């Protein structure tokens, strides 16, 4: 990706890497076991079936929710206008708590983390610029999320955040949490190197923030409270695949404006989406694949929805809730 010292860094980055340890809230996650953390997976699982899809539709109707409204909080998902060519710039340079990621180093500082902090701050700034314009295009204000950098463990409104969980979004405080050692793990253990792969992780979590602002996250959480674990997992898969699609939309629109992508970047992103599919992770960690335990989608599904958003650059293409073909 093309970033340089002159590119803007987000002011919404809180660096807690100097803190020692985390804080555990009494009773665990606020609200019991209901979906307070939305994470990039690296361990764990949801599956789906036609029966699950029928259940989803039926529950939505019983709740008085138009299934189409699930994506927009009211009405059709707005179309995103093409970014103006004149603005193109060339820079100078919450279901259940998921299982831990085996082997992720917590609290270990890796070389180049100052450079990495600059990079993630620049990526977050780009997400702010793109989503602000998108929300403005359909008459909404975009409230920027904060990103918290930590080492090992940290306090969150959703409970104690642990490095072993991987990056995650907490909808209760609207913050993204990441231990930067995760990127070293992506490269060495999950064979997903590259700066665009790293940007994809952030864009996915920002996608969950977009879902929160549009009311999607709250509606999904309400639905899951009355479902079996299997069906709740299936709904969560749709939630995660939509965040992948939104990450692709961001990458497309961001490149239109700022010419960020370089040869090989798209392949890096697609590889990252594939490497963190539930089936790939289950094979790697337990040797067997259990589709009913999926919570983020298979490698093939994650690649397809990320690519769909990347190709279209249009959030109306990210309706994972009203399709039988995930």
Your description of this structure?
There is one protein chain. The chain has helices at residues 50-62, 69-72, 113-137, 181-188, 195-213, 216-224, 229-258, 265-275, 278-286, 299-312, and strands at 13-15, 38-39, 146-149, 153-156, 159-162, 168-170, 175-178. With 326 residues, the protein is of the alpha/beta class. It has one domain (13-317). β6 (168-170) and β7 form a beta hairpin. α1 (50-62) crosses α7, α5 (195-213) crosses α7 (229-258) and α8 packs antiparallel against α10.
Largest sheet: 5 strands, mixed
How widely separated are the two ends?
29 Å
The percentage helix is 40-55%
Instruction: Please report the number of helical segments.
Output: 10
If you average the pLDDT, what whole number results?
A: 78
Percent strand equals: 5-15%
**Low-pLDDT residue spans:** 22-36, 40-111
Radius of gyration based on Cα positions: 18 Å
Helix and strand succession?
Answer: EEHHHEEEEEHHHHHHH
Number of strands: 7
How would you describe the shape?
Answer: globular
Domains (count)? 1
Q: Look at the helices and sheets and give the structural class.
A: alpha/beta
Strand order in space, largest sheet: 1-3-7-6-2
């Amino acid at each position: 990706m093309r970033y340089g010292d002159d590119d803007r860094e987000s002011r919404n980055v809180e660096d807690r890497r100097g803190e020692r340890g985390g804080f555990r809230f009494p009773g665990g996650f606020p609200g019991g076991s209901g979906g307070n953390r939305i994470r990039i997976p690296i361990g764990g699982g949801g599956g789906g079936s036609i029966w699950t899809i029928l259940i989803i539709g039926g529950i939505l109707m019983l709740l008085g929710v138009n299934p189409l409204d699930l994506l927009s909080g009211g009405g059709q998902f707005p179309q995103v206008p093409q970014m103006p060519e004149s603005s193109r710039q060339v820079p100078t340079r919450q279901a259940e708590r998921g299982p831990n990621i085996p082997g992720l180093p917590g609290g270990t500082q890796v070389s180049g983390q100052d450079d990495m902090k600059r990079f993630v701050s620049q990526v977050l700034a780009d997400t702010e610029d793109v989503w602000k314009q998108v929300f403005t295009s359909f008459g909404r204000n975009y409230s920027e999320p904060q990103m918290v950098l930590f080492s090992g463990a940290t306090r969150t409104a959703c409970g104690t955040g642990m490095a072993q969980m991987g990056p995650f979004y907490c909808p209760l405080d609207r913050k993204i949490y990441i231990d930067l050692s995760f990127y070293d793990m992506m490269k060495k253990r999950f064979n997903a190197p590259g700066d665009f792969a790293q940007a994809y992780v952030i864009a996915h979590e920002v996608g969950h923030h977009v879902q929160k602002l549009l009311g999607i996250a709250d509606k999904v959480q309400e639905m899951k409270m009355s479902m079996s674990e299997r069906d709740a997992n299936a709904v969560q898969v749709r939630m995660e695949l939509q965040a992948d699609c939104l990450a692709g939309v961001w990458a497309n629109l961001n490149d239109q404006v700022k010419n960020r992508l370089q040869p090989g970047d798209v392949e890096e992103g697609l590889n990252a989406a594939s490497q963190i599919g539930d089936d790939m992770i289950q094979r790697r960690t337990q040797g067997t694949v259990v589709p009913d335990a999926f919570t983020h989608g298979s490698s093939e599904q994650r690649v397809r929805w990320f690519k769909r958003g990347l190709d279209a650059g249009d959030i109306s293409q990210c309706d994972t809730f009203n399709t039988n073909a995930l």
